[in-house]
Amino acid sequence: MTRAALTVAVVMLLATSAPGQRQEPLPPELEGVGITEKLDARVPLDLEFLDEAGNTVPLRKYFDGSRPVMLTLNYYSCPMLCTLQLNGLIAGLQDLAWTPGREFEMVTVSINPLETPELARLKKQTYLDAYGRTGAAAGWHFLVGREDNIKRLADAVGFGYRYNEQRKEYAHAAAVMLATPDGRLARYLYGVEYPTRTLRLGLAEAGEGVVGSAADQFLLYCFHYDAKANSYVMAATTVMQAGGLLTLLLFGGWLLARWVRDARRSASDRAAAVTGPSA
Asked: Which residues pair with 171 in a beta bridge?
């Protein structure tokens, strides 16, 4: 295994380790690298970046209050991990009926302050070509920015990274952050594989009812996110509660139907007794 591949494996382990789990001492080049979840914290929407066309844009442009936002921090000259992550994200998105720009927004921010809008534009086109979804260009945004703004954003969302001067590369973890339409962090998805159902339920959860069908909202009641599994798994207690409620409703419906039937029969018998037999 090459040193670069070993580094990738370590930072992915950092991203997916359970909170509070005992860790061995890290090599100096990986100190501070990893994800610190900051659920319900607000993304600093006043921060300004340059989009792939070179325009100055505040983050709030993509948080319009009507759609959840999928946020990733990468860098466009990354030799391995970023490509693996974004390719995995595309694989999950291809089977998702929802499209960026309609049901949700996607924002990818470079952590390298030396990268340019031109490079962002080229990377955007590369990933849009791989995605192959009509209309996605309007909803997936590739940004670059100043180091201070990048650092403020990374700190706000708990994304720890470190530059290796000798290798001229960044050590970082792989995670997708899902935010509510008004800019609060709702869920972290880790690694380089993102199953379609996990993306759909995560977006439905972050969307707080503005995206997703009634069936999606019911699934969120029955499933909960398991960080170890990096997916939504069935919540046994909730399913039992739902099953008990369904049983109660069915039994109550049967009792009501029987009561209505008996009431009608009694009414019919009383009417026949009053009128007597016909001549």
From this structure: 162
